[in-house]
Amino acid sequence: MTDTAAALSAVLGAKGWLSPPDTTPYARDWLDRYGIEPLGVARPAGTQEVAEVVRICQRAGVAIVPQGGNTGLCGGAVAVMPDTVILSLSRMAAIGEPDPDSGSILVEAGAVLASLHEALEPHGLIFPLHLGAEGSARIGGLIGTNAGGSHAFRYGMMQDLVLGLEVVLPDGTVWNGLRAVQKDNAGYQLRKLFCGAEGTLGIVTRAVLKLHPAPRQRATALLALPDFAAAVAFGTELRREAGEFLSGLEFFCDAGLELALKHLPDLAFPLGARGPVYLLVELASGSPRIPLDDILSSALEHGMEQELVTDGALAMSDAQRAHFWRLREEQPEGQRLEGEQLKHDISVPPGKLAAFITAGQEICHGILPGVRINPFGHLGDGNIHYNLSPPEGRPGFDGKAGEIGRALAALATGMGGSFAAEHGLGRSKIALADDLRSAVERDLMARLKDALDPSGLMNPGVLLKAKEERKTFE
Ligand SMILES: Cc1cc2nc3c(=O)[nH]c(=O)nc-3n(C[C@H](O)[C@H](O)[C@H](O)COP(=O)(O)OP(=O)(O)OC[C@H]3O[C@@H](n4cnc5c(N)ncnc54)[C@H](O)[C@@H]3O)c2cc1C
User: Which atom of ligand 1 is found nearest the CA of 333?
Assistant: First the structure.
């Protein structure tokens, strides 16, 4: 055992310090692309233990990788250099009592998102962030990546839902910013600095989160549409008709539906006819008096008259509503079960979504004819998971993955969008950021990183290249 491992083991005890091979479940990322065995996994039980771990590692010059649920899709929560400590927040999962008058709750960073949803149910309150990995993703990781999900266009991303934070800084100092108010303009918006920092500026240990009243009614529909241009036009119509009640506006396409139905036999397609594009629409209200079903039915009728919608069904029960959502949420799983895939997490202004998909298809087929394209995602905020499977019958992408990724990223950037919409940069997108973000922007990020973490031990090689590997900024 190294001196650092012995010191950490002495501070954390048997439950709090794991050495190889017990570290194996923490070692690889969700997509199994990154990760080697770490020196060990620290599992502190509270903020002071986190601070002590950070101080020990800092003194020893040992790198630290914070880890939540390890569902991140850019390889940011695992070790890639020998003698790194993974700091797992999994034992810090306490969920406080919600404050209904203020609409807030204090939670530890290791709380699992789905557990928070469950804990709030009896109180008639919601934390309105939902994503496919919510059974594993933890609050600290969601803050670290500034997660978005399917309701972000109505309620905001993680940074809009965090009121206060407690963070252990790279030198082991604890910053207590656990305020519970939205309005706090006493200086820089420090809490936002840590949202999306991917563990490179410190370790989030606790957070005060913003809550909303639970909807008392919902109206949900699954629609088939003739093309993406119709989906964009119908989205605009829905925003106008349903206003603030529109809480879900998700899209997927027939190629993705086909994969989901092929690999997940308990899924069934509920409409009479298939279409090239589908929309999942949900309206929600805290008031039982708003006629949501009528608003949705009349928007649907209008959409059909204008030939924007070819077929559609309103969910008649909670079970049917859940099934409609599964058809959308199982899109990644269907594609994963098909085999090798390329994932791109793009955003464009919602009005340009159809143009992006058309131009993206031309680019992809130009680089690799026959590549199977499966765009799905969040129409409400223009976030497209532009995922690809190899041409039918072929095992991979003929070494073209990088070229495709760069071309799609440049297309999104040129349209005023982003090549890293909600999953962050992690390790997998740093080169893209170097190519596509201005020298001024990269320099600003590097200066922030170096000011807060001068020794560069906090999640090195994530979000930014390590200091010695960075290009010189002009
Ligand atoms: C099936 C599936 C569906 C998904 N859908 C979505 C989606 O719709 N929207 C979306 O945004 N993402 C989605 N994701 C990605 C992923 O769930 C999110 O990025 C999530 O926020 C990661 O949380 P985590 O706890 O697993 O974090 P991890 O993967 O453990 O960590 C992610 C990053 O945050 C850092 N970090 C972890 N904990 C802390 C902490 N306490 N303090 C500081 N930094 C920390 C890590 O070092 C790492 O850089 C999906 C993933 C999967 C597998």
Answer: 1
256 close to 335: Cβ distance less than 8 angstroms: yes
Q: What is the pLDDT of residues 114-158, one digit of tens each?
A: 999 999 999 999 999 999 899 999 999 999 999 999 899 999 999
Give the closest residue to 156 by CA, choosing from 210, 201, 235.
210
- Ligand 1 center from residue 86 Cα (angstroms): 15
Q: Is the CATH number 3.40.50.2000 carried by domain 339-414?
A: no
Choose one of 91, 145, 162, 175 to mutate for the ligand 1 pocket test, by most ligand atoms within 8 angstroms of C-beta.
145
Give the pLDDT confidence of 164-211 residue by residue, as tens digits: 999 999 999 999 999 999 999 999 999 999 999 999 999 999 999 999
Percent of the chain whose predicted confidence (pLDDT) is above 90: 96
Q: CATH 3.30.70.2740 region(s) of the chain? A: 339-414
Coil/strand/helix, residue 54: helix
Is 145 a pocket residue for ligand 1 (Cβ < 6 Å)?
yes
Please indicate whether residue 73, judged by its CB atom, sits closer than 6 Å to ligand 1: yes
Within 13 Å and on the Cβ side, how many CA atoms surround 356?
Answer: 32
* CB-CB contact of 341 with 335 (8 Å): yes
| Residue-level pLDDT at 474 | 40
Tokens for 270, please give them.
């509920």
β-partners of residue 285 are: 217
Residue 467's pLDDT is 82
Pick the CATH number of 104-213 from 3.30.465.10, 3.20.20.70, 3.50.50.60, 3.40.1080.10: 3.30.465.10
Which region holds residue 356: left if phi is over 0, alpha if psi is between -120 and 50, else beta?
alpha
Residue 261, burial from CB neighbour count under 10 angstroms (0-12, 13-18, 19+): middle
With a 6 Å cutoff on the Cβ, whether 168 touches ligand 1 is no
Ligand 1 close to Cβ of residue 26 (< 6 A): no
Residue 466 has a pLDDT of 85
What order of strands is seen across the sheet that includes strand 85-88?
17-18, 40-42, 85-88, 64-67
Write the CATH number of the domain with boundaries 217-332.
Answer: 3.30.70.2190
State the closest ligand 1 atom to the C-alpha of 422, by its place in the atom list counted from 1: 11
Q: How far is the CA of 270 from the centre of ligand 1 (A)?
A: 32
* pLDDT tens by residue, 53-92: 999 999 999 999 999 999 999 999 999 999 999 999 999 9
Ligand 1 centroid to residue 71 C-alpha, Å: 5
